[in-house]
Amino acid sequence: MEIIDLLGFGDKGWGVLILTGMALTLCVTLASLAIGAVIGAIVAAAKLSDRWWSRMLGTAYTTVFRGVPELLIIYLIYFGGSSAVTAIGQAIGIEGFLGMPSFLAGALAVGLISGAYQAEVYRGAYRAIPVGEIEAAASIGMPPLRSLRRIILPQILRFAIPGLNNVWQLSLKDSALISVTGLAELMRTTQVAAGSTRQYFLFYIVGGVLYLVLTSFSERVFNSAERKSNKSMPRGMGQV
Amino acid sequence: MDFPFLLSTMKSLLAATPTTLGLFSLSIFFGGLLALLIVTMRVSNNIVARNFAKGYIFVFRGSPLLIQMFLVFYGLGQFGVIRHSIVWPALREPFVCAVLSLALCTGGYSAEIFRSGLRAVPPGEIEAARAAGMSGFLLLRRIIAPIAFRHALPAYSTEIVLMVKSTALASLVTVWEITGVAQRLISQTYRTMEVFMCAAALYLILNFLILQVLALIEHRLNRHNLRPAERKPSVMSAFFGARP
């Protein structure tokens, strides 16, 4: 009975807070996926470029953001961002320490990491497009931008779905680390609930189960997206 | 650039490097043993063992490592049975808890990687070995394990790099490894960028060295079927990939 009270939606229950935290986890991961998509596209373009310095910058980005612990990057963005915000505040006359909004810091940090992984996904997807299709588009007189919009981007998106699934799962788990900035997402809420009720085991199990719900549910979404996008294609190896 | 500050930062981070390496090597060792056990259960014919392994892999790959670590560190101590047992003096130590949860987590990931290696063993080779009179452990040791390990090694290298990064989470259960010390320095000095650069450089060097060793092992294991043009091991191409 005590367990139901603790997890329920009553006065003593943590149910509402934990479910809100779960929604916030989903929001912050979606935001980081969007940020990562923009960064990933730019970095992938840089790595596919003919210019050596652009390729080098792209490689440096992916090496650093995939080789350094996620926690360290979150510290960099949160503390670095906070001191930048404080400096701006002092310039316009606000005294004292100003914190960077933790949602923004978290989404940006996980987005930067996700961007590095997404860049590799998009690069691989671009490589998978047969050269003949791009040449065919050029030979019937399609300007590069239109060929990008009509021929290249739709195919990149289709080839990228399995890779994006991996990146999404990774970001979902990385988002738990944003709890160190104090953002009340699923991990942080679980931690607070566990600490204030002293029911550590119970709440961490509940939190873990809710993460499992998130990861297995999104796996299904990605699989159905992959099936849908391959509907018009001949069946090949490794399809769901 | 404030070189004295960078130098003193680097010194305190280097002092924490043995802790990171200890966490890493112990968890890779125990996680590898665990993965062998899980993968044996996963490919066995016993339905209970197979489903247990499936469940284990699902749970440990689907939830964040941080929650697993907190479960071990804070959760286990809640039970009187564990607090009064002989393992408690060990489980009270943050370092032991961190190694335990890192090993449990990498066990799930590595088991899947080893399984993909097992699936790459051509059935013809096993049949040939059986025809030559090998079976049981001898077949495993001479034929299956070497081929499977060779196929699993590239993905396993990725997992190993991810483990180097995962040791950073141990700082959240009060183990003073590189990231924990870096965080302390950042909140003491508020010179985020300098401290970050030192710590990041340290991690990148560690990862680079570990990948070099792994690339060398991979090169050695594949020496018999390399074409002349591929004789040089390429670290950069195998540099960090997403978890499968």
From TrEMBL, chain A:
<keyword id="KW-1133">Transmembrane helix</keyword>
<feature type="transmembrane region" description="Helical">
    <location>
        <begin position="16"/>
        <end position="46"/>
    </location>
</feature>
<keyword id="KW-1003">Cell membrane</keyword>
<feature type="transmembrane region" description="Helical">
    <location>
        <begin position="200"/>
        <end position="218"/>
    </location>
</feature>
<protein>
    <submittedName>
        <fullName>ABC transporter permease</fullName>
    </submittedName>
</protein>
<dbReference type="InterPro" id="IPR010065">
    <property type="entry name" value="AA_ABC_transptr_permease_3TM"/>
</dbReference>
<feature type="domain" description="ABC transmembrane type-1">
    <location>
        <begin position="22"/>
        <end position="222"/>
    </location>
</feature>
<dbReference type="GO" id="GO:0022857">
    <property type="term" value="F:transmembrane transporter activity"/>
</dbReference>
<dbReference type="Pfam" id="PF00528">
    <property type="entry name" value="BPD_transp_1"/>
</dbReference>
<keyword id="KW-0812">Transmembrane</keyword>
<dbReference type="GO" id="GO:0043190">
    <property type="term" value="C:ATP-binding cassette (ABC) transporter complex"/>
</dbReference>
<keyword id="KW-0997">Cell inner membrane</keyword>
<comment type="similarity">
    <text>Belongs to the binding-protein-dependent transport system permease family. HisMQ subfamily.</text>
</comment>
<dbReference type="InterPro" id="IPR035906">
    <property type="entry name" value="MetI-like_sf"/>
</dbReference>
<keyword id="KW-0813">Transport</keyword>
<feature type="transmembrane region" description="Helical">
    <location>
        <begin position="98"/>
        <end position="117"/>
    </location>
</feature>
<feature type="transmembrane region" description="Helical">
    <location>
        <begin position="72"/>
        <end position="92"/>
    </location>
</feature>
<dbReference type="InterPro" id="IPR000515">
    <property type="entry name" value="MetI-like"/>
</dbReference>
<keyword id="KW-0472">Membrane</keyword>
<dbReference type="InterPro" id="IPR051613">
    <property type="entry name" value="ABC_transp_permease_HisMQ"/>
</dbReference>
UniProtKB/TrEMBL annotation, chain B:
<keyword id="KW-1133">Transmembrane helix</keyword>
<dbReference type="InterPro" id="IPR043429">
    <property type="entry name" value="ArtM/GltK/GlnP/TcyL/YhdX-like"/>
</dbReference>
<dbReference type="GO" id="GO:0043190">
    <property type="term" value="C:ATP-binding cassette (ABC) transporter complex"/>
</dbReference>
<dbReference type="GO" id="GO:0022857">
    <property type="term" value="F:transmembrane transporter activity"/>
</dbReference>
<protein>
    <submittedName>
        <fullName>ABC transporter permease</fullName>
    </submittedName>
</protein>
<keyword id="KW-1003">Cell membrane</keyword>
<dbReference type="InterPro" id="IPR000515">
    <property type="entry name" value="MetI-like"/>
</dbReference>
<dbReference type="InterPro" id="IPR035906">
    <property type="entry name" value="MetI-like_sf"/>
</dbReference>
<feature type="transmembrane region" description="Helical">
    <location>
        <begin position="195"/>
        <end position="217"/>
    </location>
</feature>
<dbReference type="Pfam" id="PF00528">
    <property type="entry name" value="BPD_transp_1"/>
</dbReference>
<dbReference type="InterPro" id="IPR010065">
    <property type="entry name" value="AA_ABC_transptr_permease_3TM"/>
</dbReference>
<feature type="domain" description="ABC transmembrane type-1">
    <location>
        <begin position="13"/>
        <end position="215"/>
    </location>
</feature>
<keyword id="KW-0812">Transmembrane</keyword>
<keyword id="KW-0472">Membrane</keyword>
<keyword id="KW-0813">Transport</keyword>
<dbReference type="GO" id="GO:0006865">
    <property type="term" value="P:amino acid transport"/>
</dbReference>
<keyword id="KW-0997">Cell inner membrane</keyword>
<feature type="transmembrane region" description="Helical">
    <location>
        <begin position="20"/>
        <end position="43"/>
    </location>
</feature>
<comment type="similarity">
    <text>Belongs to the binding-protein-dependent transport system permease family. HisMQ subfamily.</text>
</comment>
<feature type="transmembrane region" description="Helical">
    <location>
        <begin position="55"/>
        <end position="74"/>
    </location>
</feature>
